[in-house]
Amino acid sequence: MYSHFSQTDLVTPYGLVFVVALTTCWWLTRRNAKTLGIHGSHIDLLLPLAVAAGVGGVAILSRLIPADQLLAGEALQVDVRYRLFGLVVFAAVAIFAYSRLNKLSFRSLMDTFALPAMIALAVQRIGCFMAGCCWGDISVHDTWLTSIAATDVGLQVQTLPWLAGEWVWTAVHYGPGTFPYEQQVAIGLISTDAAQSLPVHPVQLYEAALLVIAYAVLRRVPLGKPRPGLVAVTAALAYAVIRFAMEYLRADGALAVSNLTITQLQCIVLAVIVLSALRLSSPRIE
After folding, report:
1. So what's the pLDDT on residue 281?
2. Domain housing 58
């Protein structure tokens, strides 16, 4: 996510979808809380606290990772970038602190929030699609792109050339002023007077669809059974796998190690932590 999508508009489609996503998360989490015997007032207070902690914490973190702000090498950068994994970590810290202060089960609270957060993110990805945020790789073969294919920027905007071609019927174009358009101008793929960008994968919708599928599968796991925290760690692992795969079709992440982005490295770390938690956790530990 990025710090803004409009310099002048107070209300944007992205912002409206963000409100819908938070409302959806609140409603589903409240329903889960009732199932687990947690009073709804805790959710009413905890959700805005968790969001505020996540956004505030990740804004600081973004300043500490300047390389993550490169969208087209030195030619195009952003000032602040809100990484989802950072937001989740800081939000989880806020939930943990709240659980200790109110003598609630941290694991149960995480179970309560996990799947609603997943479906809320699926909703928000629609806002990303509308705003041109978190855009996908170029979905066609371009002569000039071929000439920079071996560079970091070339690999960033088309990581998997075999998934590009006229056969990609889902491809979309973005207009002037959007991130995909500005990125392609910055690296010389299109001119400044081009009517639209080269076609790109609507990776935001791909991810949203996979999140809905994951939600439909994981909601079959009973909350709190066979042990508290199982839903949360399983949802985290599922998202780590989904996001790791989707990063290969996203053009907004600079390569960090080999052909892996910072987000993919975070996915690996998250998966290791989650798998360790699944192995070491005990139903008796709250």
Report:
1. 58
2. 13-134+201-280
